[in-house]
TrEMBL record:
Organism from which the protein derives: Marinobacter suaedae
Keywords carried by this UniProt record: Coiled coil, Membrane, Transmembrane, Transmembrane helix
Sequence intervals crossing the membrane: 21-40
Protein name (database record): PilN domain-containing protein
Pfam family, one: PilN
Highest taxon of the lineage: Bacteria
InterPro entries given in the database record: Extracell_DNA_Util/SecSys_Comp, PilN
Coiled coil: 54-91
Amino acid sequence: MTRINLRPWREELRAEKQKQFVVMIFGAAIIAAGLAFLWVSDVDGRIAHQQSRNAYIETAMKQLDKQIKEIEDLKRKRDELLARMQVIQDLQGKRPVIVRVFDEMVRTLPDGLFYTELEKTGDTVEIVGMAESNGRISSLMRRFEESDWFADPSLSNVLEADSKKAGYSQFNLSVKQKTPEPEGEEK
């Protein structure tokens, strides 16, 4: 016996294929939406990670700026302390100089002559004194020339004897103070 299929199999097959097509499109849309979600999540995660790195870098930069400022303050304080130390060392180094200057003034003083006033301005010493004769003043000037501590003596005034100190002449002399080089050093 022959079988005849009178059912509309083509429409059923077409409907079945259309259902499969819709399911596949729906599945592909779901997969595409899932992939898009994963991609967006990954991009958002990377952006958030980069933003956290940027925030960390900004925080680190602020800390470094603070440290740089502290270092600059410390350097400034160090420079100030070094300047103070230098001033103290200069003062301590110059402390014995005045003693040596006075000692040299005594050594250069010839007999028959004495000082009445001494005034130091800068590196110039102004001397007012009394001398028995002009030869004694000349002797004083020669000794200042030969001295390691003084140079360029300049006699500005010689007044004849007054009534208080009979036989003495008053003189005004200026001499430049110099610092001799330490022994053993050459220019």
